[in-house]
Each structure stands twice: as structure tokens, then as C-alpha cells.
Amino acid sequence: MAESTSSGARPRVFCSWGYPESGLALLRARCDVEAWEGKLPAPPEVTHQRIADGVEGVFAMPPTDRLDEQILESAPRLRAVTGFGVGFDYIDVDAATRHRVAVTNTPGVLVDTTAELAFGLMLAAARRLSEADRYVRSGQWGEYEPGLLWGRDLFGSTLGIVGMGAIGQAVTRRAVAFGMDVIYTSRSRKLDVEGRYGARYASLAEVLAESDFVSVHCALTAETQGLIGAAELGAMRPGAILVNTARGPIVDQPALAAALRDGPLAAAGLDVFEEEPLRPDDPLLTLDNVALAPHIGSATHGTRARMAELAAQGLLDALEGRRPAHLVNPEVWG
Ligand code: DGY
């Protein structure tokens, strides 16, 4: 696949956002680049139109750019799509493979940044930091109140990891430094992680039943959609805390709101949602015991720049006939 343009012409590339300049510069040096200008990514219809008009490469924004079978089959010249992130649930990868479109992503560079946010949300939920902030701002803080805003300790507690990939492992490292025990479930056992951090492998049911904190780090796939539903939430420890920095649809959101309102959960820390942005009438917004973030897992200056460079390099490699380092659909190559 991905022969370079036979005429030697510079490939046409559409970038659906003004990605960090270090990434765009890599593309501009070798391709004819149109980068969408504006604070928000291009509306999906714009990306779809550029694809239909014959661009060869797309620098796409997950989850905004939804590239399904219909889009990919009306893509006369498309040869490669790179996503600004590690998750690739925004694109129908099987359809991309059928249409000989290489898909690349940005694993690795955002691991520690996302793990830090997961830990931040864990601390925020456990120590009620969003509530504390609202309390101080609202002017309610009068006398020193020793009974105020009691939370939960991380040290001495058990953290359950759902999905022991790179981010799950980075969270595990931090958890051990905080004095937590780690139990995990994953597609495959990670004996090295068990040896290094004393993490214990278990079923999802055991992880949910035995953890004080549960942090979700698996990819969103047909198998993991709705993985944590009402029954799973109901099986968690009374007072447990759920953190999700992976993908919203892995957790049943209405069931989560109910478990936060009526138990057994004490709190949650969420960076991802079933629908983004969160609707203004979402029940989660009425709950004090949830720390919310607007999908900023990888949003630091350094990591965003590294993601842009890695994504751009992947796109360039695919368009110029070199096998990209992070190819989501290796079947398309060779
Ligand atoms: C990722 O890397 O998948 C982030 O969530 C951005 O979509």
C-alpha cells in the first residue's frame, strides 16, 4: 500500500485543526498542507468534504472526526490517516484496511501525562478538591471547621486497574509510590508488572469487589463498550471511587450517576464521557461527589507538541512509502 505519489507531486494533506506547529512544520516541508484555523477542530463535514475532494492524507482529531465506512468508501485518493491521540475509536479501522488506508496514532508520548491526570482525578475525588474549591469561592468558609469535607486516604488502600497497558502501568507505578496495593484485570497477564510492583491479576468481578479505587485504562472496543454497567457498579465496595480517563462509553454513565447518588460509590473522577461535551442537563452535573475534567488527559504543552510530531511523522511515513512506527492496521502494509 501507500505508494508515494507517482508523479512525485507533493501529497495533499488536510489537518482538521491548527495542531502544534512542530508537527505541522514536518508536514509542510513535504506536503501541500491545509490546516483548519480556529480554536475548535473543523466540523466533521469539512473533513469529510476534503476527503471526498481527494486529499491523500488526513491529520485527524479524535473523537471529533468520525471516519466511518461511508466516508472511507467515498475517498478517491486517501492513503493515510493519522490521529492526534492514542485512541482510534473515531475511525472504522476495518473499513480503513479494506480501503487500503493506513491508520497511525500516538502511543507512548502521552502515557505519563495521562497517568498524572488519572492520579489527579483520584486525589481530587478522594480529597474532595472540587467541592473544597467551590466551598472557598462561595464565601461559606467562616470558622475553622474540623468536621468539614472529610475524604478518603489513598495510602493503605487498594487500587484496581482495568486495562494494564502502558497507561495502566504508569498509574500503577504512581500508586505503589503512594503506598497503595494494586490489583488488575487485563486482556493478558503482565508478569513483569506483577514482579516489579506486586500487582495481583484477577477477574473484573474480583477487581471491582476488592478495590477502594478503580481506574479505567482499557481501549474502547466492541468488547469493552458498557463493560462497567449497573451490575458492575453495584458490585463495587461501599465508598469506592471510580476514575475514568480512557473512554466514556466503557462505563454506563446513567448507571454511574445513580451509583454516585444512591451508592455504593463515594465519588468519581472523570475526564471522558459517553457524549462529549457533556450535555448541560446531564445528571452528573448535579452531583457534588464527582470531579470533572473536559477530556484533557494528554493536554500539557510538552505532550501535545510531542503528539503532533509523532502523528505528523506517521502520516508522512505512510504517504512516502515507509512503514510508520505506530501503524494501527499493519495488515494494510506490504
Ligand atoms: C487519546 O490519546 O486517545 C486522547 O484521549 C485524545 O483523544
Description:
- The protein is an alpha/beta fold and 334 residues long.
- The chain is built from 12 helices and 12 strands.
- It has helices spanning 21-28, 44-53, 69-73, 93-98, 111-126, 129-137, 166-177, 191-197, 204-210, 230-234, 253-262, 301-319; strands at residues 12-15, 32-35, 57-60, 80-83, 102-104, 158-162, 181-185, 200-201, 213-216, 240-244, 265-270, 290-292.
- A 7-stranded parallel beta sheet has the order 8-7-6-9-10-11-12, sandwiched between helices.
- Strand 3, helix 3 and strand 4 (80-83) form a beta-alpha-beta unit.
- The longest helix has 19 residues, at 301-319.
- The chain is globular and about 70 Å long.
- 45% of the residues are buried.
- Bound molecules: (2R)-2,3-dihydroxypropanoic acid.
- Residues 62, 85-87, 110, 297-298 line the site of (2R)-2,3-dihydroxypropanoic acid (DGY).
What's a concise summary of this model?
The chain has helices at residues 21-28, 44-53, 69-73, 93-98, 111-126, 129-137, 166-177, 191-197, 204-210, 230-234, 253-262, 301-319; strands at 12-15, 32-35, 57-60, 80-83, 102-104, 158-162, 181-185, 200-201, 213-216, 240-244, 265-270, 290-292. It has 334 residues and is an alpha/beta fold.
